[in-house]
Amino acid sequence: MASVSLTALATLLVVSSSIVSTAHAQAPAGKAPAMVVQRNGTVPSAKGPEQFFSGPVRVDMLYQPQGPTRASVGAVTFEPGSRSAWHTHPLGQALIVTAGTGWVQEEGGTKIEMRPGDVIWCPPGIKHWHGATATTGVTHLAVTEALDGKNVQWMEKVSDEQYAAR
Ligand code: MN
Question: I want to staple 96 with a disulfide (CB 3.0 to 4.6 A). Which of 37, 44, 91, 141 is the partner?
């Protein structure tokens, strides 16, 4: 009986250590690993909520703040015609386009086309929306810092007329 338990424990230890070794980067002998590797395929994709987005939107959260850090990173993919609602960010937001072609617009401004490699900085409190063009999808990374646990203030949706306008 005791030997069975020990075998089970040994198996558990082997499994645990293999999980730890894949989840953390290699560290020098004698030093506990600090780097954490989140493997591709381990976080399910999410659907952009209908109340905040128009059309099909996929959100892949890449990094959620842990401990004292406050910046999240998500990859957001908009199908053609899809876009966010109007919104502001209390501490601003950086958008980094990784695929496709999209539009971003601040209130009172014209639509700006965004393409892979473009980096858009939206300052704190500026009302804006971002999304795909009418005919092409787009994927961008969104780097957003939270203030008091909140990183976005959602507003009304972008109407078809607003979306079609220049
Ligand atoms: Mn935004």
Answer: 141
